[in-house]
Write a structure and sequence with these properties.
By secondary structure, this protein is an alpha/beta fold. It contains 10 helices and 7 strands. Strands 3-2-1-4-5-7-6 form a 7-stranded mixed sheet. Helix 1 packs across helix 8 and helix 8 runs antiparallel to helix 10. The chain is elongated and about 60 Å long.
């Protein structure tokens, strides 16, 4: 992996480096239909920029479609868990100030991270690096659903136990990025869903990657997950038996006019 440092890295809110290995292990994967759609709307398949790539989850999928992937991430801890691929170049740099040339990118993707950005600066940067006809696509997912008894416990944990520890940017996730101001006209996007089969240990591991869970632990010096796991065990049944866990995927996109 190539990890050049930019001359200047603007400060960023690092909510995930501390649990970066767990993030790589437990975060849900995105559906193939998402990447089929992205490849279909891009003006060509030469270059895609995956901004705030984290552990490279989306970048690895994009590498199956595009000739080159530039995946940027300001957290070295996250990139330490990224999967190398011959056509992916990982760079440590913020999304708002990239090293990409003007009008060089067919597609920009941001997976579950746009709400952490300085949005006006990033939208300006996206406009700068997109080719005419290029596409900016961003997506997010909120709380999963499993079965009613599990969902009720998770809802109380999300809104009650760790509710005060969610940062204000979380509202964008809860809105599905509705209301964001994009630099170019919106594209119609498909309805998508993520679905996985998880046992209880995997589900609790995922809950540990939530930034509010980590902030709760730091503030209270108490890990809320063992007690939560006990509650879930009481309604799960055989804890080794997987259950289906699903998330609606909220996708928004815009296209730069071809004459720009």
């Amino acid at each position: 992996m190539s990890l050049p440092m930019p001359d200047q890295v603007t400060p960023f809110k690092d909510h995930f480096s501390q649990q970066s290995s767990a993030y790589a292990q437990y975060r849900p994967s995105y559906p193939a239909a998402l990447f089929d759609w992205l490849a279909g709307v891009a003006p060509s398949l030469q270059l895609v920029w995956d901004a705030a790539t984290g552990n490279g989850q989306a970048a690895v999928a994009l590498a199956e479609y595009f000739e080159r992937v530039i995946a940027t991430e300001p957290s070295q801890g996250q990139l330490a868990n990224a999967e190398p691929r011959p056509n992916i170049e990982y760079r440590i740099e913020p999304a708002e100030v990239s090293s990409l040339p003007d009008a060089s990118v067919d597609l920009i993707t941001v997976a579950q991270a746009l709400h952490w950005f300085d949005l006006p600066r990033f939208m300006q940067e996206a406009d700068r690096v997109l080719k005419p006809g290029g596409v900016l696509a961003v997506w997010c997912y909120e709380v999963f659903s499993c079965d009613p008894k599990v969902d009720a416990i998770i809802s109380e944990f999300y809104h009650g136990t760790i509710g005060p520890y969610w940062p204000p940017e979380r509202r964008w996730i809860e809105q599905g990025y509705a209301g964001l101001v994009f630099p170019h006209p919106h594209l119609e996007t498909p309805t998508l869903q993520m679905a996985l089969s998880w046992d209880l240990a995997a589900l609790v591991g995922y809950l540990g990657t939530w930034s509010a869970t980590q902030r709760y632990k730091e503030d209270t010096s108490h890990d809320p997950l063992p007690a939560l796991a006990e509650q879930l065990t009481a309604v799960w049944g055989d804890v080794a038996q997987p259950k289906q866990v699903s998330w609606p995927l909220k996708l928004q996109a815009c296209r730069k006019p071809a004459d720009r």
